[in-house]
Description:
Elements: H1 2-25, E1 35-37, E2 43-45, H2 50-65, E3 68-69, E4 75-76, E5 96-103, E6 106-114, E7 125-128, E8 134-137, E9 144-149, E10 156-160
Antiparallel strand pairs: 1-2, 1-5, 3-4, 5-6, 6-9, 7-8, 9-10
Amino acid sequence: MNTVTEDARSSDAGESQHIDNLLSQLHHFETAIPQLVDHSGQFLSYHVSHSSVLHRMSVETTRSRRSAKGPSNKTLKNSSKPSLYQEGDEQKGRSSVFYKLSAYGREFHLNLTLNRHLLTKGFAVEYIGSNQRRRSSDELWDCHYTGVSVNGDASDAAISNCNGL
């Protein structure tokens, strides 16, 4: 019984030493917390996972179709509610998303468009489980985005939001 405990301790110590070595090689690192924002950079949510973004987009699309008639029978628009989409028809729908994050003393406001050409139609992922059983999935997720930082420097950006940002 003592041997098992000692082995576990030495394993934990070895893993801890490995992590310490890795961290000592990093000269600079920062934790960035991304935010889902609208086209003008106004905060919408900290929920930036692919499914959360799609849900918010479908809710916003549904809400944007509603209108109300005012006393003069003119359609009223709720302009105080932030829009998830950039102005212009080419950015409407779930193909465009905006994130903001701070890193390295700068704030990045990203305008991203769904990249539907990254993976071919015949693309498949093969998983090999611990029992060496193979499982294949040909499900394509529309969760790869490319675009630019709109802060003025127009830096290119590419993000995968398939299993988190």
